[in-house]
Amino acid sequence: MTKESIIFFDIDGTLLNHDKQLPSSAKQAIFQLKERGHVVAIATGRAPFMFEKLRKELDIDTYVSYNGSFVVLNGEVIYTNPLKIGSLEKLTEVALHNNHPVVFLSENDMKMNVPEHSYIKESIDTLKIDRFPTYDPYYYKTCDLYQTLLFCSEGEEEQYEREFQDFDFVRWHPVSLDLLPKGGSKAKGIEKIAENLGIPAERHYAFGDGLNDLEMLSTVVNSVAMGNAKDQVKEVAKHVTKSVEDDGIVYGLKMVGLL
């Protein structure tokens, strides 16, 4: 009988290719893992509403979203780590002065603090989701926020990193960064799920490709970087598989002995 393992998959660049399509080989592999008695989960920087269709397609109800700030196990929220609103309000004031817009993200929605901006459209469009943020500059006062997007060119984030110590900044696009609670990461979210399930660390697996996967891949015992991952991501992973475009999920799962 196969011992139960848990496998966490990043979405963009891992499960989904450059065109935001799920390769049929990856989908088939997910269901094979389930048939063998394993737990399949998602670990992403996306908001829950940004990958609802994918969860339904793959029949997955356990996930780490917002890079570890909103964690769900079997459809139930088990951990949240919202942003500190006082610090966020100050950052927003500075960003607005610098013509650097922000997008606030809650559990169910996203709002931008400017009516429009080319950086917001440029980066959000790459996600190929059927929703776009609407204008509400004071949304942060109405509910818990688990992530904020800061829009600026590469290098311009350094002033924010120096001034705002309550947050971590992770770039995901040439003109956009994820703004996270200090010390938050996918690894933290995975830890919460693992504590609840009681699956030992030697049977934890994780696949990823981006900078927001660094802590996850350096923490999870059986970590796999995609062939299309950045070099620093490959360096911290235990294994490197083929690219997402080249059936990298299947190849990686065979490499670690799960298929």
User: How would you characterize the largest beta sheet?
Assistant: 8 strands, mixed
CATH class of the largest domain: Alpha Beta
- Alpha-beta classification: alpha/beta
Average pLDDT confidence is 96
Radius of gyration: 18 Å
Number of strands: 14
CATH superfamily of the largest domain, please?
HAD superfamily/HAD-like
- What is the helical fraction, as a range of percent? 25-40%
Order of helices and strands: EHEHEEEHEEHEEHEEHEHEHEH
Low-confidence stretches: none
Number of domains: 2
- Counting DSSP H or I runs of 4 or more residues, the number of helices is 9
What's the CATH topology name of the largest domain?
A: Rossmann fold
Q: What amount of the residues lies in strands?
A: 15-25%
State the shape: globular
> Kindly, what is the distance between the CA atoms of the first and last residues, rounded to a whole number of angstroms?
14 Å
Architecture of the largest domain, CATH level 2? 3-Layer(aba) Sandwich
Adjacency order of strands in the biggest sheet: 5-4-3-2-1-12-13-14
